[in-house]
Design a protein that fits this description.
heterodimer; A: 148 residues; two-stranded antiparallel sheet; 2 helices; elongated; B: 80 residues; alpha+beta; three-stranded mixed β-sheet; 45% helix
Chain lengths: 148, 80
Amino acid sequence: MPRKFRKPKKRIWRKCGNWIPQKLSKKIKPKKVCKAPKEFNLSGEDKVIYVYDVYENGKIAEIVNVSYQLLIDDNWITILRFDSEHGFLHGHMRISINDPTEVAFTAGVKKKGDPHTWLTWAMKRIRKSYLEYKRGFLKRSKLIDKKR
Amino acid sequence: MGKKQIEKNFELSEKLANFLAENPKILKKGANFVVFSATDDALNRINSKLLKSLKGQGKKVVKAKETKSQKNPWAFTTPC
């Protein structure tokens, strides 16, 4: 039917200023879908694994885990990981190879933005500084002489 | 917060990790240590939220507050 003969649709004026058809004004809770873990190598003995939840429209909902792992004696050990489980991005740093206790921190972690920004930030941060984390971890584990 | 301040704050977490590695008697099995600065109130506010969230999940949490003392650089408390 040509546009001039169509009845005007009922519209709701939203605060942001956009016209939205009445049908879409109902709040539908978006469903979360968990993505499969992905990984990439930083070197032969360093890798990053990341997992995140997305909404049905593809938008990232939550950072489940972005972890930096080190290969020691044929075992992959997580040294540092980031997640946004509590609604904001924060990190967990493992003390040493002898103890799995972690130090939870928000210091130096990106606070503003959305989960997509946090995911990008966490991966870039690990890529940029993984040697520092590795050195600190090996020193605390008293392996630094053996490794390098 | 400037870049230098961010780096200093991150070094604080490493400082605690180094201290705990040197003093394993302080470590508690399965506990999460949350760092609090002696000077940075903004950081402490955010870490308080983190501490509450971890506690809300039923995890063991230990608050590690930086002190100005050289003999005891950290004060550890278990929030109730």
